[in-house]
Structure formats: C-alpha cells, structure tokens
C-alpha cells in the first residue's frame, strides 16, 4: 500500500456534493488485521491511520507516521452500517470514513480504551483539515464518531479520542465553557430539564432519539453523547454536567 502524499495526490480541489459528514472509527485491531478487514469484502473506509508503535506496522516495512487512502473519496465506503444523524440515515452514502488503528477491547462487559498516539493525532488533524477544506458541507457538528451515529451499537472512536483538542485546531464541534457554566449553575439550582426537553435538545443537535423512549435506549443515547463530549464519565447517566454540555452545544450551533 502506498501512503498518501498531500502534495500531489490531494492538491486538486474535489467538489463532490455527496459528502456531508466526516466519521471517525477505531479499528479494535492492529495494522495487519485492520488492512485485512478493510480490504476484504465486508467493510471498508476511505482512510486508515496506523499506529507507529504497532509491531505489525513496523513488520509491514513502514517507518514513520503515514496515512493510507483505501477507497477513493468519490466512492462510497462501508464503514457506518445502520446509522442516523439528523434527518439522514445510512451515512455511508454521505460521509468520508476514517479508521484509526487502536487496540480498544470489549471483554466480559468491560471496555478498555487505550490512548491514541501523539503522531496519530497529528496525522488525524492534518487529514481532517485537508478534508474539511475541500468539503464545505461538513460543518463542525457533522464531524462525528461512529458511536454518535450508531448509539448503543458502537463505541468508537471512544473516550480517548481527542475531540476537544481537534476542535481547538478547527476540526469538529465543542461547547463554550462559559455557556456550559451558565447552564450548569441553572441546573444545579432548578434540576436538570425534563426527559422530553432533553430529548428535544439531543434531536436538535442531530442525535437519533427514536430508540430513546425506553430506559435502555435513553442510557445508550446519553452514553454516546458522553463518549464524545464528557469523556471522563460515560456511564450513560444523565446529570447536570451532561445536560449543561448538551444545552451549551445546542445554544452555540443551533441557536
Ligand atoms: Zn466504527
């Protein structure tokens, strides 16, 4: 596989009206198994960001941080599966998918989320900024994780994904602290909004709330939100801090 070279391969602006979303994933496997899976018949992604500390990456003959372009951006890749954001479903049709090598595991009901490597994060940032520059329809709230668009079914890219740091570099959405604090103070005094109001906020922001009428569905929705916007606690329990962050995001992006 040939790594991408921004200087020649990505220099020309592509205007493809198909693309409205940028979706991040972790592979939950090393470089070797990820390449096998992503070049096999079942799943694919436009980009693969390896981990330079992964022995299978070194063994494959690569040195240094590269990014691989597996599927041309003008083609659909099969990374999102059953998915929903706003009024759009099946986001494979309208997104660019980025897979990141990370050995997250789920065993006996317990998730383990290892950190991403600093070199990987730099590569993700460079790739994302390059993509965003070429697809103006990918607004900040349309830069998402697989868990955002498939809550309850997926947990990637997980709580170690640097959403806030990427936002500070110009990639994706984040709330303003001052607005969050205002809502937090309000909720500490009066209690968090009603379930109906919370669901309206989630829906306004883009989350699919169609399964959130059950307790399990609501918990999964809250957990998906927390994995992205409150990564230090993602227990799926709605609390003042979670509600304040959600309200601050809606206030900022959907006033
Ligand atoms: Zn995924």
Instruction: State the CATH architecture of the largest domain.
Output: 3-Layer(aba) Sandwich
Question: How many beta-strand runs?
Answer: 9
Tell me the number of helical segments per DSSP (H or I, 4 or more residues long): 9
CATH topology of the largest domain: Lysozyme-like
Fraction in helix: 25-40%
What is the CATH domain class of the largest domain?
Answer: Alpha Beta
Arithmetic mean of pLDDT:
93
What proportion strand? 5-15%
What does this entry look like structurally?
The radius of gyration is 18 Å and the shape is globular. The chain is built from 9 helices and 9 strands. It starts with 20 loop residues before the first strand and ends with a helix. The strands form 3 sheets. Strands 3-2-6-1-9 form a 5-stranded mixed sheet. It has a two-stranded antiparallel ribbon with strand order 4-5. Residues 7-15 have low confidence and may be disordered. Helix 6 (177-190) packs across helix 9 (240-253) and helix 7 crosses helix 9. Strand 4 (84-85) and strand 5 (88-89) form a beta hairpin. The protein folds into 2 domains: 21-168, Lysozyme-like (3-Layer(aba) Sandwich); 177-253, Muramoyl-pentapeptide Carboxypeptidase, domain 1 (Orthogonal Bundle), CATH 1.10.101. The protein is of the alpha/beta class. Bound molecules: zinc ion (ZN).
Offer a quick outline of the entry.
The chain is α/β, with parallel strands linked by helices and 255 residues long. It is built from 9 helices and 9 strands.
């Amino acid at each position: 596989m040939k790594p991408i070279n921004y200087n020649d391969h990505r220099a020309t602006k592509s205007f493809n009206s198909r693309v409205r979303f940028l979706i991040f994933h972790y592979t939950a496997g090393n470089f070797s198994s990820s390449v096998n899976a992503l070049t096999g018949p079942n799943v694919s992604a436009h980009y693969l960001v390896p981990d330079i500390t992964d022995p299978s990456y070194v063994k494959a003959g690569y040195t240094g941080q590269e990014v691989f372009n597996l599927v041309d951006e003008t083609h659909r890749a099969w990374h999102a599966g059953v998915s929903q954001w706003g009024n759009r479903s099946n986001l494979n049709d309208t997104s660019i998918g980025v897979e990141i090598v990370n050995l997250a595991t789920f065993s006996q009901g317990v998730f383990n989320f290892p950190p991403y490597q600093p070199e990987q994060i730099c590569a993700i940032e460079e790739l994302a900024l390059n993509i965003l520059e070429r697809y103006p329809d990918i607004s900040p709230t349309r830069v998402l994780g697989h868990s955002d668009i498939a809550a309850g079914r997926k947990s990637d890219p997980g709580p170690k994904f640097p959403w806030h740091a990427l936002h500070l570099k110009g990639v994706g959405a984040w709330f303003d602290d001052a607005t969050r604090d205002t809502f937090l103070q309000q909720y500490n005094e009066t209690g968090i909004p009603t379930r109906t109001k919370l669901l309206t906020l989630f829906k306004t922001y883009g989350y699919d709330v169609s399964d959130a009428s059950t307790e399990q569905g609501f918990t999964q929705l809250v957990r998906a939100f927390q994995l992205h916007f409150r990564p230090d606690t993602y227990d799926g329990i709605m609390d003042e801090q979670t509600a304040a962050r959600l309200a601050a995001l809606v206030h900022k992006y959907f006033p």
